Known about the structure:
The protein is mostly helical. The chain has helices spanning 11-29, 41-64, 72-94, 105-109, 114-135, 137-146. The chain is elongated and about 55 Å long. The model has no long low-confidence stretch (mean pLDDT 93).
Amino acid sequence: MSQPGHSPLSAVFLLHIALEVPLGIQGIWAPTSLPFLQLNNTTLVILKLYATLVLGVCLAAFLVYPLPEFLPGKRALAIGLCVYHSIVSTVLFQSPRFIPFSFGALFETYKFTPEVLWGGLHGLLGLGFVTWWQGTVAFTQMMRKTD
């Protein structure tokens, strides 16, 4: 049963958690086991700091997921996550190879790398948050009219 003021498009908050929480958890407890090249002490500290930020934002996404769509805090988090995923997508698309993994020679000829896949997933999430935003504007407009 859907509660009033709650859209199924809010699943984008859960998709954000699904994409980010593995990196957050592994970045905190076992950063050296992440498949990244050239990890030194400085990058490990930065990775741990980023992982704590990721886990905090995942917790915020989990907490706002069941809230009504018209609440300003939920909308602010959504637009922030939209900007975040859009920027991360661009950074990953433009980054040099830093994940020593390949999908095979065929995919390499098309320049389809883990970085591109990861960037594509972030881009889809950015688009998902834009879709959520536009799809829930009606909830906000209805609440504004009832005041």
